[in-house]
Design a protein that fits this description.
mainly alpha, AhpD-like, globular
């Protein structure tokens, strides 16, 4: 990592419940959380936004949320995000099949029309040489109302923020997902300096 986390006792007391919750949920405190927490108010804002986007009553169902977070993480070369979000996708989907096939989703029969539309939208928002066209938005309207479309857009934007933050600081995976080929999406034709 380019910036090191601090010892847990060095963080403000009011962040300790967040770290306790991460340890309970994941078996360990997440390195990105410790990095965001170097600026406690920034950590709190990011944690609050993530909580809103990943709530149970979201109009974007859990499997779709996980598909988006893994695919955006692959594009942004965030090994940590692919690791943790890949594990979450496998748990939510009940199988590792979609996790393993995600980098090549266009050629796979595992993804339905709604998932394909969402993945195309995530890629259009994430790749800087692409635009979101009216046809793609019209397709998404078959599955989402305006509020759902705004929330999906917010989720993709958030995952871009998160994965770019972690990739820039070289946050390593923490061993959550061991699916072969999961980082194949990293080899996306980007110049070597971006890998």
């Amino acid at each position: 990592m380019h910036v090191q986390d601090k010892p847990l006792k060095a963080y403000p007391w009011w962040l300790k419940p967040f770290f306790w919750s991460q340890k309970r949920r994941y078996g360990q405190v997440l390195k990105p959380g410790l990095l965001w927490a170097r600026v406690p108010r920034l950590f709190a804002a990011v944690a609050l936004l993530y909580g809103v986007l990943d709530r149970r009553r979201s109009p974007v169902d859990p499997v779709l949320r996980s598909l988006v977070t893994v695919r955006v993480s692959q594009i942004n070369h965030c090994a940590f995000c692919v690791d943790i979000n890949g594990a979450t996708l496998a748990r939510r989907a009940g199988t590792e099949d979609k996790v393993a096939a995600l980098a090549g989703w266009r050629e796979s029969t595992l993804f339905d029309a709604r998932e394909r539309a969402v993945l195309a939208y995530a890629e259009a928002m994430t790749y800087t040489d692409r635009d979101v066209g009216a046809g793609l938005v019209a397709t998404l309207r078959n599955y989402f109302d305006d509020d759902g479309l705004v929330e999906l857009t917010g989720l993709i934007a958030f995952q871009n923020l998160s994965s770019k933050f972690n990739a820039a600081l070289d946050v390593a995976p923490q061993g959550f997902c061991q699916v072969p080929g999961l980082t194949d999406g990293f080899d996306d034709g980007a110049p070597p300096e971006r890998r």
